[in-house]
Amino acid sequence: MKCFEKLVRNYVIACLPEGLDTFQFAYKTKRSTEDAVAIALHAVLAHLEQRGGYARLLFLDFSSAFNTILPQRLMSKLEDLGLHLSLCGWILDFLSDRPQRVRLGPYTSSMLKTNTGTPQGCVLSPLLYILYTYDCVAAHPSNRVVKFADDTTVIGLISEREGETDYRDEVERLTEWCRANNLLINTRKTKELVVDFRRQKSNVQPLLIDGVCVERVTTFRFLGIELQEDLSWSVNTRGLVKKAQQRLYFLRILRKNHLPQKLLLAFYHCAIESVLTYGLCVWYGSCTTQDRMGLCRVVKAAKSIVGCPLSTLEQIYATRCHRKALDIVKDPSHPGHCLFELLPSGRRYRTMKTRTSHLKNSFFSRAISALNGKPGL
Prior knowledge:
This protein has 377 residues and is of the alpha+beta class. It folds into three domains: 1-70 and 129-228, 2-Layer Sandwich (Alpha-Beta Plaits); 233-310; 318-373, no CATH class. 44% of the residues lie in helices and 13% in strands. The chain has helices at 2-15, 33-48, 71-80, 85-95, 125-132, 165-180, 234-256, 261-276, 280-283, 289-306, 313-329, 357-360, 363-371, and strands at 54-60, 98-100, 103-104, 107-108, 112-114, 143-148, 151-158, 191-195, 208-209, 212-213, 215-216, 219-222, 225-228. The strands form five sheets. The protein has a five-stranded mixed β-sheet, with helices on both faces. The protein has a two-stranded antiparallel ribbon with strand order 2-5. A hairpin with a 2-residue loop joins β9 (208-209) and β10 (212-213). Residues 1-227 form the Reverse transcriptase domain. This is Reverse transcriptase domain-containing protein. InterPro entries: AlkB_hom8_N, DNA/RNA_pol_sf, RT_dom. GO terms for molecular function: 2-oxoglutarate-dependent dioxygenase activity; methyltransferase activity. It comes from Podarcis muralis.
């Protein structure tokens, strides 16, 4: 059955219009959480270049998002996207009257048929979900809605002159959209982070969703990366160093048991380097010297245990930054593609104008420098 589902999935993808839901980064070729965080951060940093502006980031949490899809509503959306009626009918039949049982030890419940949600572990489920939510987009140009599967973030770019009217209206519209599409916002787990670098900060009024006040936090784990309200990365790097140091213990145990160097190296790449480099393109360029020293100490310790040279984080960052930039340049549907503007010569890209070090050291600014071959990446 899974093989047939893969065939259906590939056919559905081939029928979809190009550039559909560009701010949905999940289940797409050469897109990752790193892309989603980079785009969200760039929107915030570019806005903060203007004096008197600040940003509010709302991290929505849905309760059992995949289990609340309404098949009939999904069908109407698939038809709007131009999928053939026979295919829509097959998907509707696939999602309707699914028998389910619950087994606990020797006990098995009676059969119950369900007509909402998508089957767990189904090949088609992720694709059907992102098609179900493709029309969840920002209504105002001063806002962004960044999605990675069911992780949805509303970014309000607020200026002194316009105020928060558009942002609050965006949240209200999104709440109404969720009601219409049977998606339940878990207000207890929904958090808000305010990025405000103004010298004279005004009192930011709390945000209410369905009468419940959304908790404002100073740090939030955004798609696996610790994001702080001052856009520093000390909490993120400390967490990575702590996790990597714990795994160094197992590397030492493996060496004591005389495992070959090749296996030690494989363990390092899989269990330690992968931790240290998660989302590297997003945060490494803005790290402080102290943060980088902590990361480098872990690599040096691993090098002495393994007994052979290891790539430095600086080298890995430069390589990944350049590769990611090339991928974005080749993908016109990527939201960051427009940031890579060729000069009339056709050989170099226009350097991003920056007023603050935050934007100057961000991924897109560094990526443009990497493609232009500038030193100091």
